[in-house]
Amino acid sequence: MLEIAEKVHDETRQGEAFAPFKEEVNVYRKKFYIESYGCAMNFSDSEIIASILNKEGFGATRNFEDADLIFLNTCSIREKAEQTVRKRLTEFRKVKEARPGLLIGVLGCMAERLKSKLLEEEKLVDIVVGPDAYRSLPGLIEEAETGQKAVNVLLSRDETYADISPVRLDSNGITAFISIMRGCNNMCSFCVVPFTRGRERSRDAVSIVNEARDLFSRGFKEVTLLGQNVDSYYWVNETTNETITFARLMEMVALIDPSLRVRFSTSHPKDITGEVLHTMAKYENICNYIHLPVQSGSTRILQLMNRTYTREWYMAKVKQIKEIVPDCGISADIIAGFCTETEEDHRDTLSIMEYSQYDMSYMFFYSERPGTLAARRYTDDIPEDVKKRRLQEIVELQNRLSLESNKKDIGKTFKVLIEGNSKKNTTEWKGRSSQNKVIVFPKLNNDLKPGDYAWVKVNDCTQATLLGEII
Ligand code: SAH
Ligand code: SF4
Ligand code: F3S
């Protein structure tokens, strides 16, 4: 069932490795290749890393065979994520054996978690850099070029890379991520992120709005504001003394242009405010979609997880969302088999899924992470086969909910932002509704292009996709 969880994960924005498309290697003195794992924050960080490296004369290449430097931007969220990286490193060992000058760097959360231990465990690694230390990468590369091992895993209280204009790597030219904050101050007991990413800090709002405006002027039509907990965004403009909350930030980005869509991720149920929901309802270009991780439907388990809300509180939040933003799509993250979880707790999770009618979920079974509160305090006592069976039941329920949610859209018409050709068929466009659902429809003979909006009527669906026609 690990496979199921990872498969569900992989079909989405998260989880898949990627290498940059942009190739301008001829103007650069050296070439680097980067693969990203984990969440959108990591993908976004790779674009900051690329920008830092470009300035120092390193150009991105899509082929690791051509690269002088290979970087893996890694994730520690579950054991499986780390295993994937280790496997990839074994593959690169062979490349390095054939080309001893090649430098290999591990960046991101796994670098932060394991620090210099990683150099002992993985002898072929030359460079280890944590998420707050990317500005030191050029210096560390120089150090590594002289044959030393180079490490910087210092976490920072104020680094936001606000002044760095990310180089858009694997971009479709239409949608982009903007990192608005870093770190996390929540201490969910299962989670390694506060340890790998450090304290929460918000990025200068002016730089965020400027980045969005610049993207829009270059033809981008959708930005996703990223943070582990976007609703706790808080920044004070020292020139005007204005306090910027997440709702205000979202509004500032939405006001750039009505044809620029605004999305955000992730919302912690305890922090999403009425102000945020009313701002969503007020602006047509703020998408009606909230990723609202529930983790568990049992109050007892939520307490052990240190999520700071109860089952009833979460359900009231879902109700409030549906009242203020009536056609809002909702998705969740769910963990099966957390410490001490009983069949009754598990049934509470299934029933909260039914209640919330999630359009989609990312589903995992609990993976103990060293150093976390749960690892220190509780025993990982649910047998693997029970975890797998519960996860299977959660996945099956979500499959049904997704199909039901899609069936409800048959006959309705949606404004769709065209992102490009459909994967299967170049005579069809693929785009998304405001609710973040993928819609595929025939191109017809008109002059629509990626980045345009189309009104599409839904005629049919699968569990994952709506099928429609332009009206
Ligand atoms: N900041 C986001 C989530 C970041 S991690 C939030 O708070 O919602 C993404 C998801 O991975 C989490 O929501 C959780 O469902 C899952 N996850 C985190 N730690 C995990 C662990 N130790 N085992 C299994 N799943 C985990
Ligand atoms: Fe992890 Fe919780 Fe922070 Fe999300 S809010 S990153 S789950 S500690
Ligand atoms: Fe993974 Fe780090 Fe993101 S642990 S989920 S890459 S913040």
Automatic annotation (TrEMBL):
Give the catalytic activity.
Answer: N(6)-dimethylallyladenosine(37) in tRNA + (sulfur carrier)-SH + AH2 + 2 S-adenosyl-L-methionine = 2-methylsulfanyl-N(6)-dimethylallyladenosine(37) in tRNA + (sulfur carrier)-H + 5'-deoxyadenosine + L-methionine + A + S-adenosyl-L-homocysteine + 2 H(+)
Q: How many and how are cofactors bound here?
A: Binds 2 [4Fe-4S] clusters. One cluster is coordinated with 3 cysteines and an exchangeable S-adenosyl-L-methionine.
GO cellular component term of the entry, any? cytosol
**Domain TRAM, chain residue ranges per copy:** 407-471
Where do the MTTase N-terminal domain residues begin and end?
Answer: 30-146
Xref: InterPro entries:
Elp3/MiaA/NifB-like_rSAM (IPR006638), Methylthiotransferase (IPR005839), Methylthiotransferase_CS (IPR020612), Methylthiotransferase_N (IPR013848), Methylthiotransferase_N_sf (IPR038135), MiaB_methiolase (IPR006463), rSAM (IPR007197), rSAM_horseshoe (IPR023404)
Binding residues for [4Fe-4S] cluster 2: 184, 188, 191
Q: Name one Pfam family in it.
A: TRAM
Q: Where does [4Fe-4S] cluster 1 bind?
A: 39, 75, 109
> Where is it mostly found?
cytoplasm
Cofactors (names): [4Fe-4S] cluster
List localization entries: Cytoplasm
Q: Which domain of life is it from?
A: Bacteria
Q: Which SMART domains match?
A: Elp3
**Record-listed E.C. numbers:** 2.8.4.3
Q: What class of enzyme is it?
A: transferase
The chain positions of domain Radical SAM core read 170-404
Role, per record: Catalyzes the methylthiolation of N6-(dimethylallyl)adenosine (i(6)A), leading to the formation of 2-methylthio-N6-(dimethylallyl)adenosine (ms(2)i(6)A) at position 37 in tRNAs that read codons beginning with uridine.
Full protein name: tRNA-2-methylthio-N(6)-dimethylallyladenosine synthase
